[in-house]
Structures are given as structure tokens and as C-alpha cells.
Prior knowledge:
Blueprint: H1 3-15, H2 19-26, H3 30-38, H4 44-60, H5 71-96, H6 115-132, H7 137-148, H8 153-160, H9 164-184, H10 193-196, H11 211-215
Amino acid sequence: MSPEADQDALLAEAQAGNVRAFERLVRTHLPRVRRFARAFARSEADADDLAQEALVRAYKRIRSFRYQSAFQSWLYAVVRNAFLDVTKSRAARERRLEQPLGPGEHPFPSGQPGPDEALLEKEERERLWSALRRVPVEFRTALVLFDLEGHSYDEVAAVEGVPVGTVKSRLSRGRAALRQILGSAEGAPRASPGVMETPLPGTLQPGGSSQAQRSRS
């Protein structure tokens, strides 16, 4: 059975109420959903809870999926809306709390640095995550999905339910906001080109797509 046919079969079972089928359906998306949650959460534990809450909402709404878009786009749209709903009620507390990346999370690609370089990169990632959570929520999703996860313009547009031009505008304004936040932080280093500026053509992004490939979308 092809992957597409397998997904369709799992979708049919999940829409019929099969929880196991839904778990299998979203299994490959779990790491990205959790990383996505980090941009809206106060801590790693909170990110896990937030991701779980978003997936529960997706399960409850699985019957609303009508193949009008890719399942991945539908899933991320539901997850994004769940994150935004929670953010509205937690915005004040999120602004007061800052947490670094957890072990094994590397949204910004790097080589094999030495101990001193590794420490500097860790500090930079901490500042980037802290700054990212201060970027207005209407720009944050585009930054996470495009710059961190490597989705194309079209995919981000499908998730957000807006034209591609709006995605590009949000990316531009989000990067500008991130530059301003990082620039106002005392002693803040320059941010990674993958987020602060348009990545060089052909540079691989965390999601596995190159900038050149995504720009054609």
C-alpha cells in the first residue's frame, strides 16, 4: 500500500473514531508540533502540554477534514489556532518567562562546534527563543513554519488561511520585529541568517527543504 493510500485509510478510521489510527496518522508530525509549541509556551513542560492540547483538538475535529487541502496543512492550521487561543489567555505570563531550547532541539543548523563555540551557540539560541516569544503572534507562526521548519510559502499560506503575499509580508515584518528585539537586548549577538535575513539560495533549512526550492513555491 502506498503512503498516500495508507494515510487515507488511517484518516477514514480516525474519522470513524479510532484513536489508534489518529495516533499513527499524526506520529510523524509530533516533533514538529512540539517545536511549534515552543514558540508559544513558557517552558518545555508547558510546550508538551500545549502540543497535547492541540492534538486533542485536532482529534475532536478530524471529521471536519474534507480533503480540500493537504492533511498536514489542515493539521497545522488546527494546531496553530489552538496555540493562538492559549496564547491569548497566557500572554501576560509568557512575556515574563523565558526558557532556552531543550536538549536535542536544534532549529538553527550548525556544524560541529568546539566547547566554546557550543556555549556561544547555546546562549544565542536562548536569546532567539526568548525574542521569538516576544514577536507579535500574527508574525510568529510564519517565522516558525518557514524559517525554522522549512515549509514553503504555499504551505504556510494554507496553514494560516491567507495569500502567499501576506505570508511574505508577515515574514518580513516578523524578521524586522525579531531584529529590533534582539538589538534592544543588552549584549545580544547577531541572529542566525536563517531567521534574521533571507537564507542563501540552496541553504538547507531544518525541515529539509532548501531556500531555493521554497522560493519557487
